[in-house]
Design a protein that fits this description.
alpha+beta, elongated, single chain, 455 residues, 64% helix, four-stranded antiparallel sheet
Length: 455
């Protein structure tokens, strides 16, 4: 250490001035457009508009309200409050914030206080001292590390927000899946009643000799099949409710009451432009922050090859000091890496490889996001048409059942024909229930794919 008791101010001024003259700002990270261009293959062209049909206009936020379903909103709110997976993501944000604070603290001096007292043979002594040390960030290595930690913190925040949005969408879909299961169970109960009535009619007709025992056997077989389906739908219903209860942090006792009817499907929202996703989707924001963080880590690993400089100062009071029982000294250190068996260069290569991985991950996330929107835009349109066609099929099958039942009562058709028509009508209604839930779920998928907030 260089002792500078005689001219501390002159030395400090010269050293700090030279440090700032030699110092340089951290290299700015690449812009979003550059990151996207470098992440995707040269042959990949991000079109200005969606390939699938989409309504023009700005993507709206607050999509949860568009369903006009207070019960579903309450369930989503409970999941956001109690879900254990989301609490894990929130804890990761807190940890990343702490890491960013630690990295920023390296840019500032550290101060320590010490002291002691002793009493030997009746003679007492004491001492109090203060120590200050500061690594002068001449080349910007510490600033690069701090910037990397800040980007990692931003990535953790964005990851949490994406987890929050995903949980809201997952809970909403689970709510409507439970509604679908409740409707299937209700339909299965209705089918048991239908086939029970048919069996009563057939048995009554057999008693007067109007039908054979074969018709009775067919009616009993269809009733047994309906009873089996009822048990199956009961199991599916309880499973759907338990899955929903787990999302809410409740005990999975299948005790939660769910809606038995679907809400009307809201209008398809405007989809904006593909480039909007880069700022609206939190998973893309997190991936971009990871690329920028790794860029700073590469810069820091390169700067670690340059000399490091630090200042130290100490002062205090001591009963053993003479002549005025006080002392002060200041010094400067520098360290130039000379030989480290290639460790520093290996670190540069490691960070560079991690940067390439982060860049590739960003490109993969971007393409997946574009695909999700394109797929949902196509599916919501197709599902709307499928629901309309299936609704028509249900109506026509109901008419067929009514007419076939009338014909059976007057003996114009046999029981097998009636049972076949009745089964087709029940199957059509079951398919409609499934499609209605798929349509709602696909609308939710589209909102999630478009990014933004649900509130």
């Amino acid at each position: 250490m260089l002792n500078t008791l005689q001219k501390p101010r002159t030395f400090l001024s010269a050293f700090v001035a030279s440090a700032f003259l030699a110092g340089c700002a951290t290299a700015p990270p690449p812009e979003q457009e550059v990151i996207l261009s470098d992440a995707l293959p040269e042959t990949t062209d991000v079109a200005g508009k969606w390939a699938s049909a989409a309504e023009a206009g700005e993507v709206p936020d607050g999509w949860l309200k568009s369903y006009n379903d207070p019960q579903m909103e309450a369930v989503v709110g409970e999941a956001l409050k109690n879900n254990l997976g989301l609490r894990t993501a929130a804890a990761n944000v807190d940890a990343a914030a702490g890491q960013a604070t630690i990295a920023g603290a390296r840019l500032k001096p550290t101060v320590g206080l010490g002291g002691g007292a002793a009493n030997e043979a009746g003679d007492g002594s004491y001492g109090v001292n203060a120590n200050v040390s500061w690594e002068v960030d001449v080349w910007g290595r510490l600033r690069s590390l701090s910037a990397a930690s800040e980007q990692q913190f931003l990535a953790a925040q964005a990851t949490f927000e994406f987890a929050r949005l995903s949980l809201a969408a997952q809970t909403a879909k689970a709510w409507y899946l439970a509604t679908e299961a409740a409707q299937h169970r209700k339909l299965a109960e209705e089918s048991v009643g239908i086939f029970s009535q048919l069996l009563e009619i057939v048995e009554a007709r057999e008693a007067v000799g109007r039908v054979s025992d074969q018709d009775v056997a067919l009616a009993r077989a269809d009733l047994a099949a309906a009873e089996e389906r009822l048990r199956g739908t009961e199991g599916g219903y309880q499973s759907a409710v338990r899955s929903l209860e787990l999302l809410l942090g409740r005990y999975p006792g299948a005790e939660m009451e769910v809606a038995e009817e679907f809400v009307p499907v809201p209008a398809v929202p405007p989809a904006g432009l593909p480039s909007d996703l880069l700022d609206r989707r939190f998973d893309l924001v997190a991936a971009e922050a990871n690329v920028k963080a790794q860029f700073q880590n590469v810069e820091a690993s390169k700067l670690a090859k340059l000399p490091s400089f630090s200042l130290t100062a100490a002062g205090g009071l001591s009963s053993n000091s003479t002549p005025d029982s006080s002392f002060f000294n200041i010094g400067a250190n520098f360290l130039q890496p000379v030989f480290n068996a290639g460790a520093l260069q290996a670190q540069v290569e490691i960070e560079t490889a991690l940067q390439e991985a982060a860049l590739a991950s960003y490109g993969q996330t971007a393409l997946a996001a574009f695909n999700e929107v394109e797929t949902s835009l196509t599916n919501v349109a197709l599902l709307r048409e499928r629901v309309e066609f299936q609704s028509s099929a249900v109506d026509d099958n109901k008419i067929a059942v009514e007419r076939t039942q009338t014909q059976y009562e007057v003996g114009r058709v046999d029981l097998l024909s009636l049972l076949q028509v009745q089964t087709r009508e029940l199957s059509a209604r079951s398919a409609l229930i499934r499609l209605q839930n798929e349509e709602l779920a696909e609308h939710i998928n589209l909102h999630l794919a478009l990014g933004g907030d649900f509130e």
